[in-house]
Design a protein that fits this description.
two-stranded antiparallel ribbon; elongated; about 60% helix; mainly alpha
């Protein structure tokens, strides 16, 4: 973020204008942010100015990455669960997904997958809820 800030802070004035912020975000994210995103960025400025410090740019990037990660976890949760239920992943669905994953990457043994499931199934009811699943991702089983 600091290098993008320095690159787009025209005249080294110590802040980015809204246009410069848009350019810096495009540089950092690989895509041009839309109007809605830029309006959201304004909420990081406590003084409501249209000047964005390097610290504010860092906060914006951090929050965007957190949101992207959460979106990715939600998509992964959807891919594991049975179409009949959008609230949990059964052991059967989980193991089917692990088998499909292993066909592509051979990333986790059957035993390790079972152990992880039972460890993450917080109330031991044989299903993994979304909260359980986010804990599983923090466990970094699939990293």
């Amino acid at each position: 973020a600091a290098s993008a800030f320095a690159k787009y802070d025209k005249g080294s004035k110590g802040y980015l204008t809204r246009h410069e912020l848009r350019c810096a975000l495009a540089f950092l994210l690989g895509k041009i942010p839309d109007y809605k995103t830029l309006k959201w960025c304004q909420s990081f400025n406590k003084d409501k100015s249209k000047q964005f410090s390097c610290e504010v740019l860092k906060q914006i990037i951090e929050k965007l990455h957190e949101e992207e990660e959460e979106k990715s976890v939600k998509e992964m949760f959807k891919s594991f669960r049975n179409a009949k239920s959008n609230k949990y992943i059964s052991l059967e669905d989980y193991m089917e997904a692990i088998e499909e994953l292993n066909e592509k990457t051979q990333s986790i043994s059957h035993k390790d997958a079972l152990n992880a499931f039972y460890e993450i199934d917080s109330n031991k009811d044989g299903v993994v809820t979304y909260k359980d699943f986010t804990d599983l991702m923090k466990f970094k089983l699939f990293s």
